């Protein structure tokens, strides 16, 4: 069993944005030389997240972000944190700061429509993503 | 350290449904022969999810699905994805397409009331679940 | 590759509360002697959760709990589960009962502002958290 870790940066140009990072994650897996196992995709930020969803129709991303924005609006009576990004912290905890993907024969075992997304909830910014691959 | 992977199918008969898959996951762990470690339960679909919650009282599942349906209704003004299942994609990202369970002495280390559920958000359909077991 | 598992208890004094457990998780990692790999932080309860978010300003926790309380209120017309905690089960599935943290050189690879929190959604109670460390 081997462990390989690498990282890369992701940039956004809007406050809330989903960026497809499937190719970057696949590239780390290829570099690792690991054929079978699991990869953790982790972002070390508290107003961002990682998710897996459809990467065929960009309207899906639009609709997910619209829903999150309307369900968890930027301003809420009673918010105490004075940086104006409490909604971003909420979205980060609900979507989650990591995802796991299985690896079979050096390839990500994703479904036909699945892609891996970095979710920016308080951009635009440059952020980091860690990928740890464990396997044989 | 060994890695063992298997998969099974899950069928639903409603649009939104939680199906208890605890026995199927336990069965993969027994087949693996792995005594201690971790299992990833992963679904390769973008309008479904995996969660861990109470499997004693079926009313809990009813109430979780009711809450998701009322908080994230099927139709929302502004949705652009033309398959009528944008709400299903949202629920998939919020609940998440995988869960992890610890294994001790060939058994799932679940709490007394915990079961593992496949969540269908755009059924009825037949779907796949992957289980990867890693350990000794 | 080694596997080490330990557990600890967390107490709350309100119905909904986020308790910082970063030091307890770090302490399990040090006990394990594992230098590089991953840790699963898992709670075996169906009305609680584990999340990673900001542990610098306590107002962030306040605002996250306020948002969850207003979005998923305790009482909802149509709830059937008769323990009055259906909202707690919903929050548990949305936030999730486990998190994963990467380990580099015996230290948690958390971001500058990240801490690990146990989320109580049906307290006050005493609860258990399992930590499994896998690596070299």
List keywords for this structure.
three-stranded antiparallel β-sheet; homotrimer; Jelly Rolls
Description:
The structure is a homotrimer of 136-residue chains. By secondary structure, chain A is α+β, with helices and mostly antiparallel strands. The first copy, chain A, has one domain: YjbQ-like (Jelly Rolls, Sandwich). Helix content of chain A is 26%, strand content 40%. Chain A contains three helices and eight strands. Chain A has helices spanning 22-32, 58-71, 86-95, and strands at residues 2-11, 17-20, 36-42, 48-54, 98-104, 107-108, 114-120, 126-135. In chain A, the strands form two sheets. Chain A has a five-stranded antiparallel beta sheet with strand order 1-8-3-5-6, with helices on one face. The longest helix of chain A has 14 residues, at 58-71. Chain A is elongated and about 50 Å long. The mean pLDDT of chain A is 97. At the A-C interface, helix 3 and strand 8 of A face strand 3, strand 4, helix 2 and strand 5 of C.
């Amino acid at each position: 069993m081997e462990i390989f870790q690498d990282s890369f940066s992701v940039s956004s140009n809007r406050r809330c944005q989903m960026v497809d990072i499937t190719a970057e994650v696949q590239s780390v897996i290829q570099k690792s030389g690991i054929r079978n196992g699991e990869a953790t995709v982790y972002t070390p930020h508290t107003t961002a997240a990682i998710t897996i969803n459809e990467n065929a129709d960009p309207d899906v991303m639009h609709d997910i972000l619209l829903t999150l924005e309307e369900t968890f609006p930027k301003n809420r009576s009673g918010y105490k944190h004075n940086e104006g990004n409490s909604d971003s912290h909420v979205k980060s905890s609900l979507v989650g700061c990591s995802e796991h993907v299985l690896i079979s024969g050096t390839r990500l075992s994703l479904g036909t429509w699945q892609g891996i997304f970095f979710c920016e909830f308080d951009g635009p910014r440059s952020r980091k993503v860690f990928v740890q691959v464990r396997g044989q």
